[in-house]
């Protein structure tokens, strides 16, 4: 059975080969039509090819096991790859703007639009299907490199659709100026999406808190909370490629022995595995409850309770991220 890292690599390999074929198809379409809009699409495909090889190498590196030099593994290589891909996308946008200006100075007549439309339409359909596969597998395996590839391929599809619509209009109206307008509009969209990919990759490199991921943890913790989990705090979730590293403090009854406390950690680990798969590492520090914990603890069979139970505090994004135990000050 393939590991998530192996599956990511095989998918990226297929995408890389596909990007080379689609780039060649768009170049043929450009030479048939001399359409600047189609050239725009082809230039963006150069980025697809380069990004494909970069992503392939990054997934190869990310799949390597941890070693003495990289105790957390090599997963961060995916963030670097994504940043490079975003930079290449921005470069393509700038190149397209430059080519558009050059075309205004030395324009060529548009020809054979019907044949060009067929070729470009086929590439757009294939790109969308491939991008959707990348996104689904990337999200399932927590692979930013695959997600970036998928978003880029789907962006390529949307720009292709815009180009096809514009070229159809040109075919029937002979408004050749629309060719330039389409190219400039798509270049703006490309620049914006390049920025978004770089922003997300830098967030991963800097270990920025992922609020969406933490909210998922809050939801499953509340849905599967055990009676001995008095509180859970100081939660940190960091993504290293397809692997999640989870650190937290778990407050349990102070009288549990080591084996009993470890059983609680095992249950927490099983809960995370059921939701996120086996690609994670869990490090839990267990805390014994304090007298102020009694008011938020609903363990009715406790024989050493010092204060009456008042209210159970649900886990929230704020209190699981705090480095303090939950107490009466958390009651709302």
TrEMBL record:
Transmembrane segments: 12-33, 45-63, 83-105, 117-135, 155-175, 181-198
Keyword set, alphabetical order: Membrane, Transmembrane, Transmembrane helix, Transport
UniProt keyword Transmembrane, yes or no: yes
InterPro entries from the UniProt entry: Cation_efflux (IPR002524), Cation_efflux_CTD (IPR027470), Cation_efflux_CTD_sf (IPR036837), Cation_efflux_TM (IPR058533), Cation_efflux_TMD_sf (IPR027469), CDF_Transporter (IPR050291)
Main location: membrane
The keyword Transport appears for this protein: yes
Name of one Pfam family that matches: ZT_dimer
Domain Cation efflux protein cytoplasmic: 214-287
Subcellular location(s) per record: Membrane
Residue span(s) of domain Cation efflux protein transmembrane: 16-205
Topological category with respect to the lipid bilayer: Multi-pass membrane protein
Family: Belongs to the cation diffusion facilitator (CDF) transporter (TC 2.A.4) family.
Protein name: Cation diffusion facilitator family transporter
Species this protein is from: Parasediminibacterium paludis
